[in-house]
Amino acid sequence: MKNIGTTLGLWWLSSFDKSQFLFKSLRTLPVYLRYLFYVSLITALYFTIVKLGAIIDVRSYTSIPVFIQSLLILIGFGIKALSVIFTMGIFSYENLYSSNFDVDKHLEQQREKKQYIRENQLEKYRLRNIHGFIRILLYIGIYCFLYLLLEDILVSAFFNVYPNPSKEIYIKFLYDYDFVIKCFTGIYFIFTLVLDYFVRKNRSLQ
User: Fold this and answer.
1) Is 32 left (phi over 0), alpha (psi -120 to 50) or beta?
2) What phi, psi does 55 have (nearest 5°)?
3) Where are the transmembrane segments (predicted)?
């Protein structure tokens, strides 16, 4: 029975180290050198992320819209999370080394499974293979992202043109803004309806 460490190691191996370069290279090293490599890797990643965070301070760039700043900060958190996953994935190789797991057999089974999925177009990322509720959440999420992006562009453009707008100009902007948002919402709604119709049609033919 595979434990969590073995499962994580196999996932990392089959996803990011398909050539088994790191796996086989580390396997040839003595245990103490491998652990020294793990510690060095963690230390290097930590100082690199901290240093980059200090150099690239997104909030110091006032010309960047707030929404874009928030998005960049979120990407930064994602990079940190990926660094942690990367380190855990490499470290989990120790479970494979200690258990003498048949990696080659596992990878062969994975290749056969992926080949079957590819031939039958059963990939999870395809819309027709995603559950209807999840698709709706995906559509809503994309709409919210595009809405916030469009809103930020419109508001930023308005105040760049009119730093101190009069009441009449501001009211006119609100009317135009409302019209643009309604048009965008209508177009997006129609687009998603048509898209989901063909998705469900292809799903029924599958």
Assistant:
1) alpha
2) -75, -45
3) 35-56, 68-91, 136-159, 179-199
Measured over the CA atoms of residue 110, residue 12, residue 10 and residue 130, the dihedral's sign is negative
Can you tell me the distance from the alpha carbon of 127 to that of 134, in angstroms, rounded to the nearest whole number?
10
Q: Domain residues of the chain, as ranges?
A: 4-119, 127-205
* Tokens standing for residue 119: 């031939």
Rg, Å, the chain Cα set: 25
What is the H or E stretch that residue 94 is in? Answer: helix 93-99
Q: What whole-number distance in Å separates Cα of residue 8 and Cα of residue 93?
A: 8
Burial of 9 (0-12, 13-18, 19+ CB in 10 A): buried
- Total number of residues shown for the chain: 206
Spatial distance between the Cα atoms of 41 and 142, rounded to a whole number of angstroms: 36
Query: What 3-state class would DSSP assign to 144?
Result: helix
Write the pLDDT tens digit of every residue in 4-50: 778 888 888 877 887 888 888 888 888 888 888 888 888 888 887 77
